[in-house]
Write a structure and sequence with these properties.
Length: 469
């Protein structure tokens, strides 16, 4: 199924695309159902009260990921790409105080988070580790409407029926139709390379042609908006200091590191590996903003939001011959690779661990940088494979359910790996042992075999091996 660059890179808020953005969008979709005259449960009276039950990873790490806040704001009618953080804080406090939400077109509805927002720590729902059941009731407590949603990573949300349809027909009838609408409908890296060879086009050129079908002349402006949002997020992160919220007392470090790097410029005393520090500080700036609940771009998730922006800034400010068009090409190619991983495996930490988040982001960034630096299609595919291969098996074990430890530094290392992978691929001719498609398959199989306690439940690994004082 075709995934646009604007599906992979979405404007949102921290700290999590799957645990914050997804539940907020699910709640907003539920309101749309109610407004649209969704079929009522027989015998129900007038709409009166809402309820949300969080299951699996949404329950285990939901409080650290602000899932409760996301559901509250979603039931108020807010969406992650347009909300005003200042308005959101006041609105959340009002709902917790009054036990009411006032979504447009539905009147006042009872929703007391202390009672109506339930963290269910039992077995996860069958469809996905990130499941939630939303219910509406009449004044007598009779069921009015109900829907099950799954937040499948990167801010993508599907209903139980939609998820089942994907399982029943992975190719999907809609996707078959799409194959005739897009000039280069590659669903695998192998097909991508074959189409590039047959057409004589680069991956970026094929991706641009596909995107133009959807977005026409507005494509470049849309890409530039994403690039601008990524840059703004880095700049905000580099200017902030203080302690991140959540109780771990994690200090923001990006500004202090950036100040040191600026002071060292021109001294001719910098170590050659200082380039790694620049990549790290850009990534850390983004993920500190994400941890603080700031505005970020899913890349492809919030937990991995620092990798692609870091590599983009590194390309723009540090690489010889960097151009604005090169930045656009980097983003397009990164989106192409992210789409392949999302379609053929997963980008959800709750489903496959952090290999699906930072691993995917590093693979995307490596491919994009390789393309921007003039790599052939085969070298780009090789760069993506190298970066993903060397994240295989990475667990998702956030301390206290917060997207801070080890997530912030993990993005820094993901960016460094991406640049190293791109450089290695550019030193070769594109021929290599392990195809990207196979590596993606291994990532999915590894995730399926991984213990649940290492998949965004905070029940194993770093999350349970914390200092005692």
């Amino acid at each position: 199924m075709f995934l646009s660059v604007f599906d992979i890179f979405k404007l949102g808020i921290g700290p999590s695309s799957s645990h914050t953005m997804g539940p907020m969008l699910a709640a907003a979709r539920f309101l749309d159902d109610l407004r649209g005259g969704a079929e009522k449960i027989p015998g129900a009276g007038q709409l009166h009260r809402l309820e949300a039950r969080l299951h699996g990873s949404l329950a285990f790490t939901g409080k650290g990921h602000a899932t409760d806040r996301a559901v509250i704001l979603g039931f108020c009618g807010l969406r992650p790409d347009t909300l005003d953080p200042a308005e959101a804080d006041a609105l959340e406090a009002e709902v917790r105080r009054d036990g009411l939400v006032r979504p447009e077109g539905l009147g006042d509805l009872v929703f007391d988070p202390a009672r109506d927002l339930v963290f269910d720590y039992g077995p996860p729902l069958e469809g996905h580790a990130n499941g939630m059941v939303l219910r509406a009731f009449d004044a007598a407590g009779n069921g009015y409407h109900q829907q099950t949603y799954y937040s499948v990573g990167g801010g993508f949300v599907v209903t139980a029926a939609e998820l089942q349809a994907q399982h029943d027909d992975p190719v999907n009838l809609a996707a078959r139709k799409e194959a005739h609408d897009f000039p280069y409908p590659f669903g695998s890296a192998r097909a991508m390379l074959a189409m590039g060879k047959a057409s004589g086009l680069s991956i970026a050129e094929m991706k641009r042609a596909n995107e133009t079908v959807l977005h026409g002349a507005g494509l470049a402006a849309g890409i530039d908006r994403i690039l601008g949002a990524m840059d703004a997020c880095i700049d905000r992160g580099l200017a902030q200091e203080g302690i991140l919220p959540g109780g771990l007392q994690v200090r923001r470090r990006a500004k202090a590191i950036h100040d040191q790097l600026l002071a060292e410029r021109g001294r001719n005393q910098a170590q050659p590996h200082q380039a790694n520090d620049w990549m790290s500080v850009y990534a850390m700036a983004v993920n500190e903003e994400n941890a603080a609940g700031g505005r970020v771009v899913t890349s492809p998730t919030n937990g991995a939001a620092g990798v692609v922006p870091s590599v983009l800034r590194y390309y723009r400010d540090h690489c010889v011959g960097a151009t604005r068009e090169g930045c656009r090409e980097l983003l397009l190619v990164a989106a192409a690779i992210g789409g392949l991983i999302k379609h053929n495996a997963s980008i959800s930490g709750a489903e496959v661990g952090c290999q699906g988040e930072v691993g995917s982001a590093s693979s995307m960034a490596a491919a994009g940088l390789c393309a921007a630096l003039g790599g052939s299609n085969e070298q780009v595919e090789n760069a993506a494979e190298i970066a993903l291969e060397h994240h295989l098996g990475m667990t998702c074990d956030p301390a206290a359910g917060l997207v801070q430890v080890p997530c912030i530094e993990r993005n820094a290392l993901g960016a460094i790996k991406a640049v190293s992978a791109a450089s290695l691929a550019l030193r070769g001719d594109g021929q290599h042992f392990m195809p990207l498609d196979n590596c993606i398959r291994v990532m999915l199989e590894t995730g399926r075999d991984m213990s649940e306690k290492y998949k965004e439940t905070s029940q194993g690994g770093i999350a349970v091996n914390l200092p005692e004082c």
